[in-house]
Amino acid sequence: MILLNPGPVTLSARVRAALQRDDLCHREAEFATLSLGLRTSLETLYDATEHLAVLLTGSGSCAVEAMLATFAPRDAATLVISNGVYGERMALMLDCQGKPFFESRQAWGAALDLTAVSQLLDAHADIACVAVVHHETTTGRLNDLDELAALCSNRNVGLLIDAVSSFGGERIDFHRWRPLAVAATANKCLHGIPGVAFVLGRRDFLATPRGNSPSLYLDLERYVDLQRDGWSPFTQSVQGYYALDEALRELDEQGGWQRRRERYQQITDRLRGVLADLGVRAFLDRQSSASMLTAYHLPPGCSYPELHTGLKQAGFTIYAGQGQLASRVFRIATMGHLGDADVERCCEVFQSLLGQSAI
Ligand SMILES: *Cc1c(COP(=O)(O)O)cnc(C)c1O
């Protein structure tokens, strides 16, 4: 099966083979070496010299929730900017954590409204952090964080980024944005397996224990000292680490995130072109979209289940819309190990399902 959903992704043969490495206890020296290597690779991928990678066992949401648990204060507010499901989920997480927050709910698919953000920051002097999603996977919108980061730094407000579906496949400017923390996962643009997630947190912040976390398992402060030497307070996904280790080697050999981004864009452009010829309109223009995901309007007279089944029978898994877009769009992600032949075959399947003779 070729996965065209935004994680988990189609694995390369070498990443799949890494799952067969020897059984290993997470209290043995070999595990510490593996863990230290992963942390260094994650920090150097974007040259994040001011940040420390903390590895967790869980899905992307686990990393986002751990980031909010550890970095969002208990005694000052966090402003969540949402323009899709994942922004809204961060507000839910803060609510579950019993922390003070405001939410700037913005239109799904629209560019970030920074005037609204400034007004909220003006109105509430107790806002200490802004939390935002980089690539809002709900719509494919790549939120422009250059200006938001500048706004936060001018006001001395910390920036927390959900980069779960952009880390490894889009530009993340650690030096200019200076985020307090960035949360991401192994199984989207990094091409590992689900079960390993991580947060890159600012070293200066993590140097002082703050006691912000209402959760034990998600408290990154409990991990930091142990992980400095490669250890972890809880059992980690050893096979997930193996897969991420191999996936990061592969990414490095292929030319890093820049080259991966180009490859994603190339496949996305090919599919966009073929679908446009078939009369299928993209939900957002190319400039506003992330390189590796596009939402498309469902063609008239074609239901998502029909389209999904047609593609699945041919060996491709596409993704439905979420929330208010569930009945209106379908999504195609181009992350994962995809060859040119896979892409061309997918185009042919769309042509046979949606071409004139089919409708
Ligand atoms: C996939 C995703 C998540 C986390 O999802 P999980 O199912 O927990 O892995 C969080 N934020 C964004 C933007 C995502 O795309």
Task: Describe the secondary-structure layout.
Elements: E1 2-3, H1 13-18, H2 29-45, E2 51-57, H3 60-71, E3 77-82, H4 85-96, E4 101-105, H5 114-123, E5 127-133, E6 135-136, E7 141-142, H6 145-154, E8 158-162, H7 174-177, E9 181-185, E10 196-202, H8 203-206, H9 221-227, H10 238-253, H11 256-277, E11 293-297, H12 304-313, E12 316-317, E13 319-320, E14 329-333, H13 340-354
Parallel strand pairs: 1-12, 3-4, 3-5, 5-8, 8-9
Antiparallel strand pairs: 2-10, 6-7, 9-10, 11-14, 13-14
Bound molecules: pyridoxal-5'-phosphate.
Can you describe what's shown?
This protein has 359 residues and is an alpha/beta fold. The strands form 4 sheets. A 7-stranded mixed sheet has the order 2-10-9-8-5-3-4, with helices on both faces. The mean pLDDT is 97. It binds pyridoxal-5'-phosphate. The site of pyridoxal-5'-phosphate has 13 residues, from helix 3.
